[in-house]
Amino acid sequence: MQDSHCQLNISKIFISKYWSIVLVIILTPILLGAILPILPTHDDWATTIKPDFNPFFIKERFLFYGYHWRPFDAIMGYILGTNPQVLYPALNHYCIVIGHAICAILIFKLLSALGFSTLSRNITTIYFFITPATMATVSAVDSMNQVYALVCGITSFLLYLKLERGKYVAWIIMLFIATWFKENGLMWTLIGPILAYSFDFIDQKKLKKDILIGLGVMVAYALAITLLPKDIIIHPDYEPGVLKVVKNTIKFLFTTFITIDYIYLLHQPSRNLLAACLTFALSLPFLYYIFIRNIKQFINKKMICTAICLIIAVAPHVGTVFSMMHTYAGLAMLTILIAYSIDCYSEHRKSVIISFILLCISAIIIDIHLINASIDSGQIGKKMAQEAIQKTGKPVKSVFVIIIEDDYPKLSSFCVIPNDAFGWGLASKYETNYQWPEMIQDTTIVRSSEAMGKAQQMASEILLNDSIDCIWIVNHDNVDVVKK
Question: Which of 129, 214, 280, 320 could make an SS bond with 238 (beta carbons 3.0 to 4.6 A apart)?
Answer without folding.
Answer: 320
